[in-house]
Specification:
This protein is mainly α. The chain is built from three helices and no strands. 76% of the residues lie in helices and 0% in strands.
Amino acid sequence: ELRFALEPLTVLLADHLAAGIASGVVRPTDPRRLAVLVLNLVFAQIHAVVLGTAEERDVESSGAELWEFCWRAVKKESNP
């Protein structure tokens, strides 16, 4: 049931990643698989914050750090 409920979000992110792949900004891979990986990581961080297992000092900066981590994971490497 949870997978069904999250499907629209997965599709939305996969569509954006596919567009990034087509434009050469995101590394070429299966956009749906990449969307699932990114969403799982984001949800894990949300759970840590909501359940109080994240360090209080990390909560404020975790969003920016998570974005940077995900961006580095999906972007296409540039040639020097």
